[in-house]
Amino acid sequence: MAVTLKAAKGSRAPSRAIGFAGSAICLLVLFHTPLMKVVSLALASGHDADQYSQVVLIPIVAAYLILRQRKRIFAKTDLAAIPGISVLVGGVFVFLLAEFARGILNQSDYLSALMASLVVLQIGTFVLWFGTRAFRLAPVP
Fold first, then answer.
1. What is the mean pLDDT of the chain?
2. Contacts of 17 by beta carbon, 8 Å cutoff, 6+ apart
3. What is the dihedral of CA 100, 104, 108, 110, to 10 degrees?
4. How far is Cα 45 from Cα 49, in angstroms, rounded to an integer?
């Protein structure tokens, strides 16, 4: 029995959005501890807080810019398995490097490496579910 992935017109976008949201939630759960550490550093006061103060605003600004252009970005989306998985492998590689160098890096550098890994994994997830065209059109540098 063959299973076809083609759905009725208009029903693919919601399923992609659900798949992306599920993947993003999984990443947030997996990176919960370092994310909470970065957020606590961003909201703290003191000398180190200056380094992390913009971290809380970046996802909000990115979401706003994407939502503002959502019709253009998501007008034509496709699953992009090879590019998406390639970027995801890169994110896993950055994560493994961070874990391997954990004893060598100070706390700030280790958190930076983990957040870089999370960002690359999130980009890979976006490319996987929505394709390279949507990624190119998304106005977030």
1. 84
2. 129
3. 0
4. 5
